[in-house]
Amino acid sequence: MKRYQLRERFRDLKKDPSGLLAYFALRRLIKEDGVNFRPGDGFVIATVPPDFRPLSYKKACHVLLNVDGDEWGLHREAVRLATSTKRKKTIDHEPSIFELRGLRVLLATHINEVPKEVRFVAKRILSLSPPLAEDVHATRRILGLPTLSKEQVSVLIGKPESTVLAGVMKSEWSAGDEQALLDLKHSDEEGPSLFDLPGFEEQKVWARGLVKDIALWREGKLSWRDIGQSALVSGPPGVGKTYLASALSTALGFRLVQTTVGVWQTQGYLNDMLAAMRRSFDEAKASGGAVLFIDEFDSIGSRPSRPTGRPNETYWQIVINEFLSLMNAPGEGVIVIGATNFPEWIDPAILRAGRIEKHFKLGLPDATTRAEILHYHAGGALPFESLTELADDLEGKSAAALEGLVRSGRRLARNEERELQLSDLRAVMPERKSYAPEEQFRLGVHEARHALIALTLNCARSATIEIRDTFDVSPGSYMRGRTSYDLFEYNLPTETVLLNRIAMSLAGMAAEAVVFGDRSLGSGGLVGSDVEHATAIARRLVGSYGLGETPFFFATPEELDDERMLPTLEAEAMKILRAQYARVLGILSREKDQLIALASEAVAHGKVMIERDAGLVSESARAVD
Questions:
Q1: What integer pLDDT is reported at residue 616 of this predicted model?
Q2: Residue closest to 444 by CA, chosen among 598, 579, 585, 557
Q3: Are both 425 and 441 inside the same structural domain?
């Protein structure tokens, strides 16, 4: 390469410190090992150092080989990545034994990424060394930064690319920076370890297995491909999805890399979104061990079961294909944790084995776990027994809300310059109001109908009714009654089973009509409400499962949530809902006395359970302590 051409290319490379470090490593390879990259002289496979990105070395190769990385033409085939960062159908493709024309340098993070037949054909297989002290000095000199001392440079040698770059790019070092760099890998681990937290029992079992496997991987005794590398965490807002990822990274001694699909989408055009997606994975790969936490996992979209060719579908097809490729090989030392409130919206291809190994469904903590969470965040300063009463009045609160409550209590104690006391937590408890007696009885009727219909229609073995006499006035925390079931499981639900579930959902509204002659809004208004659940089943019956009057498939169950069906199908779904509502009205009218008795007992005791006896609803309800 002529000197003026080198200067031109260096002008761009000077903006990229990682590219400079890679350039010096490649120059050393040429000088010390006598490697040449002349066209027509075969090709070289070079594996980059662990925890470094191949893309930086690709940019450096473009300078050394005098090829334009942005030029359309055969030059671009000279330098390729074993696992490409691009999925567009261009000549910048991954190599195979059938497509090696023009190849001079093939870069890989691990030799196993390269097909065996391609390895056989290669002129040489080399391992690139991590940056040396002389590379660090040269890079800072080109960047116009002061020279580092021998002690300062020694802190960078042998570290992951992200740590080396942090040291190289820091303009002025001060006292203590050496130790700060050594602590960088722990900077995201200030929170608690997963093993120290209350709850998360299922996740702890998985994490303990990961700890053992990662230890073997670091010792070179286990391939990263043999380690379960990803999981999906789902549940309503506030159940601790982000907290779980952070605590997992601490337990594993990994860095936490956080992002959201929404952040990727805000980058602008398709290419910008794809680039942002790749950067997140690259950052995790360069960390030497990372938990890549991706929130809003469902927003990555899904591919239609029947493509129509619309531009929007093509956009998401490209996005999902790229995401699938990244999930196939997230990188050595990278564990991907996806978080979502709506797991059913995720494209099935993303959830298959090999991409997502585990699916953890998180729910709101029960009373005992709530007390444990309060006790944990109080630092053991308050007796566990004293917190159980408070926990009982915090039903429906997430782990994050409970942590916030303790934090508010500590603030009260600090303001008075004393230690945390139980009275501080009581002072910051959410305001509660009492139900009027008639409201409590209505709640009892509403929930008693669920229990009676569930057992009458053989949907459940038993049902437990809970009625509270007070409710939390915080937004979104209005607690009505609740009925939980020991449901019969059906691996292959029939039409009758589905119709019974519709009836079960509509029973609360019907019970209020039978007893009071007037219905409340307690059965509808929300996604997940009784009426919404019944409507969804009815629409799926006729529009997806083919169980309507005419067997017909209109769309998948997931697609029906966002589409309006044909008018004839919508009318048939309405007919099913009317029939099941009338059916439940008839049953409850005949059992009105039993319904009122069960509701009264639920209100009186707060919690009762009824069971089936030889296929019939038990004559008496059993109070539950």
A1: 38
A2: 598
A3: no
**Could you tell me which of 330, 328, 334, 332 has the C-alpha nearest to residue 352?**
328
User: Residues 238, 349: one domain?
Assistant: yes
Cross-strand partners of 106 = 45, 80
CA torsion through residues 575, 588, 610, 527, sign: positive
Burial group, residue 519, by CB count within 10 angstroms (0-12, 13-18, 19+)? middle
284 plus 340 within the same structural domain: yes
Look-up of token digits 């260096």: 10
Neighbours of 185 (CB within 10 A): 19
CA proximity to 166, closest of 288, 11, 25, 330: 288
Indicate whether 298 and 333 sit together in one domain.
yes
The dihedrals phi and psi of 281, each to the nearest 5 degrees, come to -70, -40
> Do 374 and 426 form a contact (C-beta atoms < 8 A)?
no
Spell out the alpha helix ranges (H) of 335-436.
367-377, 384-392, 399-415, 422-427
**Spatial CB neighbours of 214, under 8 Å, sequence gap ≥ 6:** 227, 252, 253, 289
Considering the domain architecture, whether residues 381 and 349 belong to the same structural domain is answered as no
> What is the rounded CA–CA span in Å between residue 89 and residue 91?
7
Q: pLDDT band at residue 69, thresholds of 50, 70 and 90?
A: very low
Q: Which amino acid is at 583?
A: R
Rounded CA Rg of the chain: 31
Helix, strand, or coil here: 360? strand
Cα distance between residue 130 and residue 429, in whole Å: 55
What SS3 state is found at 74?
A: helix
Q: What is the CATH number of the domain that holds 291?
A: 3.40.50.300
Domain span at residue 409? 367-429
Residue type, 608: V
Strand partners, 126: 46
pLDDT tens-digit series, residues 494-542: 999 999 999 988 988 888 889 888 888 877 777 668 888 899 999 999 9
Same domain, 53 and 147: no
Average pLDDT, the chain: 81
Q: Tokens for 81? A: 């990545």
Domain count, the chain: 5
Backbone region of residue 164 per phi and psi (left: phi > 0; alpha: psi in -120 to 50; beta: other values):
alpha
**Statement to judge: residues 441 and 482 lie in one domain:** yes
Alpha-carbon distance of 69 to 66, in angstroms, equals 9
Q: Specify the pairing of strand 607-613 against strand 460-466.
A: antiparallel
* CA nearest neighbour of 360 among 347, 373, 343, 372: 343
Same domain, 73 and 169: no
